[in-house]
Every structure is written in C-alpha cells, then in structure tokens.
Design brief:
Blueprint (H helix, E strand, L loop, with lengths): L3 H14 L11 E2 L32 E2 L12 E6 L2 E5 L7 E4 L11 H8 L6 E8 L2 E8 L5 E9 L2 H6 L4 H10 L4 E3 L6 E6 L7 E6 L5 E3 L1 E2 L3 E7 L5 E11 L5 E13 L4 E5 L9 E6 L2 E4 L10 E6 L5 E8 L4 E3 L6 E5 L10 E5 L7 E4 L5 E5 L4 E5 L2 E3 L6 E2 L7 E6 L5 E6 L7 E6 L6 E5 L4 E4 L6 E6 L2 E6 L6 E5 L5 E5 L1
Parallel strand pairs: 2-37
Antiparallel strand pairs: 1-13, 3-4, 3-38, 4-5, 6-7, 7-8, 9-10, 10-11, 11-12, 14-15, 15-16, 16-17, 18-19, 19-20, 20-21, 22-23, 23-24, 24-25, 26-27, 27-28, 28-29, 30-31, 31-32, 32-33, 34-35, 35-36, 36-37
Length: 499
C-alpha cells in the first residue's frame, strides 16, 4: 500500500506533538484589500463477502487493443497522475493522452488523490499545478483536455544547487512549504478564484488569490510562518490557512517542527480570522460539517487532544462532537458526513479497541470492528471507506466488502454496480502480485500479474477496470476481463474520475 508508511510516519509525529508544549504562534499580517451512554456493538449488514482462500492463478495474458481515435469532446475522463506527468483517457481507457509533463507533488500529503482533486477546477476544464524549472517554482494552469498551459505566477526563485548547498536557508524552507504540500485550491461552484501559496513578495510562503476572470492576483497574508494547504469552505466564502515552521541541519533531518497557527480569510473583504490551534506539528483537518464549521482533532487540553471538535470559522468557537477520544486514523464521507475512525484502548476517554462509525447527528458511534485498523481512507470513486487491513464499508455502514487475502490486499476499487478489484499477494512467501476481480455471486478471478500502481473502474457503466501497472495502462471488461494494453505512461500514484 503506497500511503501506509507515509501516514504512519505523519501520525507518529502528530501523536508525539500532542505531548509537547507549543511555542508562541507567528501570526500573519493581513494584506488590505478592497474587495450519553457508551455505544453498543453492532455489525453492518454484509452484502459482499470475500474469501481468504488461495487465489486462482490461471492468469489471463494481456492482449493489444486497436488504436483509439480521439478523446470525448466534453468528457467524462479518467485522470492519472504521478511524479513524471499527468494523463487523461476516455472512460473505457481509450486514447491515453498526456496533458502535462509536470508531475504532482505532496510528499507530506496524507491524501494524494485529494491533492489531485483540489488541483482540478470544479468545472473540470482546468488544472492548476506547481511546476519546477531551472529558475524555481511556477504556478501554471493547464486546459483540459487540450493541454494548453498558461503561467500564472512565479512563486519563488531558487535553483536545485541552492537547495542542495543551503537546505536550511530561509528560501529552502519556503520552497518545502510551497512544493511539498497540497498548495492549490479552486473556489467551489464555478471555480472563478484559485487559492495558492507562494513566496512572491517575501521570504516565507504566504497565501494568494488569483481571479481567473480579471487575471488579478492578490496577496492575502504575510508573516513569519510558512503558509500551507489552503482549503475552501463549502460555500466558497472563506479560505482556511495553516502556518508552520521548519527546522533541521545540513547533516540531519529537515522538516516541520511547529504548527504556528490556523487562520481563515474572508474572501469578500480580506479579513483575517485567528482560529484555535491544535496541539500538533501538522494540522489535522478532517472535513466540514457545513458551510461555516470544520472538524479538527487536537484542540483543547493535552488530555483531550484526540477528541473531535467542530470549529466555527467566523467566531472560532469550538464544541466537541462526541465525548470519546479517537485514535489517529479517521476519514469523513462527503456523501453523508459520516466519520469512520480507529480507537485504541489506551487513550483518554477511549471507546476501547475497535473501529467505529459516527453518523451525522449522533453522539455515540457504532462499533463496526473489534480490531483497530491501521489506515482509514474515503475512496470517492468506489464510494466506500477503506479500513486497512480489515474491510471496505459504505458510508452508512450497511455494506461491507472483505479483501481477497487478509493483510495482503491493496488498491481496492468498487464499481458503481458492485464489482470489486484488488491487488493481492497470494502468500507471504512468493510475494507474487495479482490483480483480482469479483462479480457479485461469482468467485474471485485473477486477470493480471505484476506490480499495480492504481486500479479504477469506468465511471459510466462500472464494467471496465483500468489498471496502471509498471508504466502501462490496461483495460479489462466484463465478462471475461481479458486485459488489453491501452498505452504507456510514467509512474502513477493517483487516479480519479473527471466528470
């Protein structure tokens, strides 16, 4: 699993940080503008159960497919992205086309697919990227599907030699903040405004706003901390902004060592609002309750640092969502706002060991699993939570899919009609990577061998599986799922639907 190590590393930092006392925040300066009872255990209804028996190894060999003729004029598309570039295809995987030679960044980002989503405009016709060149970092906007590119801003001037020779310089720290985090975010709705971070007018990373209609760029904050991860409120009226500081030496580890603060900018007049700061090194924003309230853990006294809080983005007022603490792994479903989280027995106010689902309006969550899970993600294209290594769950907890091989199954994908696909290793000894699929009512079927980067089903019918494997793209369709080679591309770590 590609993100397990990253998430575990970040969560270790997070948990350690909650035990230490923070230093005074470096507050940015705004730039004037004109403009109950414990829950009872209850297992969900299982509609799709997998087995842990040996996977059949009668692997189907890939076959070539005729060359496609063109991309659909107006979509939908599937977008693939990685360090070496960005590609799009038709829903069936045909006409694989590279739209950018610049890859996506985000080595500290816990949700790489989420990073790609924020880079694409709500209308799906543009993508904002931070690209590296011999002069530093630029912000560009790429048109979809044509690939025409426009440079919007030069974010920082620095060379690779500068970073190598002076890795702890002021400019180097600003570069890490801009380059290594989710650094762009489109305004919800029509996507007229683009929030981004850059060191255009100063030595640190600050928050900026680009207007796609007027071409105007405004600086929204300034200060000693490094601005990262701009995030819009659902109604597009506010931008959340987080400030961090870096430390390190030229011969040791370099990374963030302090969360300086959390601020919101009201877009209508540029007003800067100071908000409660979590007891952490990095912010742990979980999601939004509504247009003016976001959910975050780590707020409050040290003993309450794992209790979930709702924060009012206007007043800064906080309230706990439930009276129990949660373990560090948690995700929110955008379908209904449900939260799935893993709990440890040793935490203050703990629910005990297990994995729990909290539905909107509830204060007592439902236990779905007696075990802790070690990674929890929401998979938008599959419309399920992935509670690794145990199972997939629907947002209401009523549907469960078990992996084909326990603790050896990765990259799950569920189609709109309930077909499953996983990368699985048949056993701990051989470590042979297989792509397996399951149609409801039938046994698991092996369709390809080899390393898997991403699996994603077509968004229209849910009968064709696209497989990114070792620089190649394959398509496999129901009923025989014979793998067809669709084209080649670079290393891929993200794949999403683009309506």
């Amino acid at each position: 699993m590609s993100t397990v190590k990253t998430i575990l590393s970040i969560m270790v930092i997070f948990m350690l940080a909650s035990c230490s006392t923070g230093t005074p925040a470096a507050t940015p300066t705004p730039i004037p503008t004109n403009t109950p009872q414990p829950p009872t255990a209850s297992m969900p209804t299982t509609t799709a159960m997998a087995t842990t028996a040996s996977i059949p190894t009668n692997t189907l060999q890939p076959t070539d497919t005729p060359a496609p003729t063109s991309l659909n004029a107006t979509g939908p598309y599937i977008v693939f992205a990685g360090p070496s570039g960005i590609w799009i295809t038709n829903p069936d995987g045909s006409f694989l086309t590279q739209v950018s030679g610049s890859g996506t960044h985000g080595i500290w980002t816990t949700d790489p697919e989420g990073e790609l989503r924020t880079a694409i405009s709500p209308t799906g016709d543009r993508m904002a990227l931070v690209v590296e060149n011999d002069k530093g970092l630029d912000l560009v906007v790429v048109k979809i599907p044509g690939g025409d590119t426009e440079t919007i801003a030069h974010l920082i001037s620095i060379t690779r030699a500068d970073l190598t020779n002076y890795p702890t310089s002021e400019k180097a720290f600003a570069t890490y903040a801009i380059r290594d985090y989710a650094d762009v975010a489109w305004q919800p709705g029509a996507g007229r405004l683009l929030a981004f971070t850059g060191a255009i007018n100063g030595p640190t990373s600050d928050l900026y706003l680009y207007d796609t209609q007027t071409g105007e760029t405004k600086q929204l904050t300034s200060g000693l901390s490094q601005s990262i991860s701009p995030t819009w409120s659902p109604d597009g009226q506010y931008i959340l902004n987080f400030g961090i500081s870096f430390s390190g030496s030229s011969t040791g580890a370099i990374g963030p060592d302090r969360l300086d603060g959390v601020w919101a900018v009201r877009v209508s007049d540029g007003k800067l609002i100071s908000l409660p700061k979590p007891n952490a090194i990095l912010p742990h924003l979980i999601g939004w309750q509504d247009n003016s309230h976001y959910i975050m853990s780590g707020i409050g006294d040290q003993g309450d640092s794992n209790i979930l809080h709702s924060v009012d983005i206007v007043s800064g007022e906080t309230r706990s969502i439930m009276d129990y603490s949660c373990y560090s792994y948690i995700a929110q479903s955008p379908e209904n706002g449900a939260l799935l989280f893993s709990s440890a027995s040793g935490c203050v106010s703990s629910l005990g060991e297990g994995t729990f689902l909290l539905l909107p309006g509830q204060t007592a969550p439902t236990k779905l699993l007696d075990k802790r899970t070690w990674e929890i993600d929401w998979l938008p294209e599959s419309r399920v939570f992935f509670a690794y290594p145990e199972a997939l769950f629907s947002s209401d907890g009523n549907t469960r899919y078990d992996p084909p091989v326990y603790d050896n199954s990765f990259h799950p994908a569920v189609s709109k009609i309930g077909y499953q696909a996983w990368q699985a290793y048949e056993n701990q000894v051989s470590k042979v990577s297989l792509v397996v699929v399951k149609v409801p009512g039938k046994d698991w079927q092996t369709i390809l061998t080899g390393k898997v980067n991403m699996l994603i089903w077509d968004p229209l019918e849910g009968r064709t599986l696209l497989i990114a494997s070792q620089g190649s793209l394959y398509a496999a369709s129901y009923p025989d799922f014979t793998a067809r080679l669709m084209g080649t591309m670079g290393s891929i770590d993200q794949a999403i639907w683009l309506p």
